[in-house]
Design a protein that fits this description.
The structure is a single chain. The chain is an alpha/beta fold and about 290 residues long. It has a single domain, classed as Alpha/Beta hydrolase fold, catalytic domain (Rossmann fold, 3-Layer(aba) Sandwich). Helix content is about 30%, strand content about 20%. The strands form two sheets. It has an eight-stranded mixed β-sheet with strand order 2-3-6-4-7-8-9-10, with helices on both faces. It has a two-stranded parallel ribbon with strand order 1-5. The longest helix is centred in the middle third of the chain and has 16 residues. The protein is globular. The N terminus is likely disordered.
Length: about 290
């Protein structure tokens, strides 16, 4: 999810009755998505080669993504699923360091984000994540090379569900590893937790959270990713998704698995070279 302020997970209701009524009428699912269409930075501004990619979904939407080729002979490819706010142009710094390390990167915007059409919801975003992966696995540049999924916050929840289905269906090519950074343990569980933080919604945190499907609870699906290795990353200073979510996911995952305890703000893992090195070590170890 977004790195900047807690309001981007569940917007501060500012004490307004209007927001409260909206919750009662529409449920909580929309509170996971805060897209915009602002272009914050493009890859060329970061001295990265890139290609615009447009994908058509089965239900008539068009998704926009960026393909970032490795700067020299690729060691593998990373499929990046971003957090809940803004769009790929504000999240690109999380992966902009990877082409220099000889990894291709593909990142997409879910429906309603950036240049992608439509309006976001949980099931639509899950469909979009799979659409992007299917396009990626058809590209000749990734053939016979390791393939990793990196999901951050909301993207980690989407990626966990996608990876578990990919493994269960024995899809090809297989994933070589899944990396989850600052991910919540479930859609319903984080909705209930955040609703409980605000006095206006606290009395109704349980019934309101029931409006969020529990079909895609991350902790219930992460175990299905095995035998694909999983790396769970979570910061003790994450002010958006508390640390206990990462621990719960790690405990629910099956071997092989790793846990990286970090000490940055939410979504700021990869500003620290040591954390970059830890993820590269995970990928190098599992991409041989």
């Amino acid at each position: 999810m977004a790195t900047r302020t807690p309001r981007l997970l569940l917007k501060t209701f500012a004490g307004t009755a209007a927001a409260f009524i909206l919750l009662l009428q529409a449920g909580c699912s929309s509170l996971f998505f805060y897209p915009d269409q602002v272009i914050y930075v493009t890859p060329d501004r970061l001295n990265l080669e890139y290609e615009d990619v447009f994908l058509n979904t089965a239900d008539g939407e068009t998704l926009h993504g960026w393909w970032l080729p490795a700067k020299s002979e690729p060691k593998g490819t990373v499929y990046f699923l971003h957090g809940n706010a803004q769009n790929i142009s504000s999240h690109i710094m999380n992966v902009a360091w990877l082409p220099e390390k000889r990894y291709n990167v593909f990142l997409i915007d879910y429906r309603g984000y950036g240049r992608s059409t439509g309006a976001p919801d949980i099931e639509g975003s899950l469909h979009d994540a799979e659409t992007g992966l299917r396009w990626l696995t058809d590209q000749p540049d990734i053939q016979n090379r390791p393939l990793f999924l990196l999901g951050q916050s909301l993207g980690g929840a989407l990626g966990t569900n996608l990876a578990s289905e990919w493994v269960k269906r024995n899809e090809q090519p297989p994933l070589d590893g899944v990396i989850l950074d600052g991910t919540f343990s479930g859609f319903r569980s984080i909705a209930r937790e955040k609703l409980g933080d605000f006095w206006l919604t606290w009395p109704l945190q349980i019934p309101l959270s029931w409006t969020v499907t529990d079909e895609y609870e991350t902790y219930e699906h992460i175990g299905n990713i095995s035998p694909v290795p999983v790396m769970v990353i979570h910061s003790v200073r994450d002010g958006i998704i508390p640390f206990h979510h990462g621990r719960r996911l790690y405990e629910a995952a099956e071997e092989p698995k790793e846990f990286l305890r970090t000490d940055t703000g939410h979504g700021a893992t990869f500003v620290i070279p040591g954390y970059q090195a830890a993820v590269l070590g995970f990928m190098d170890a599992n991409g041989e």
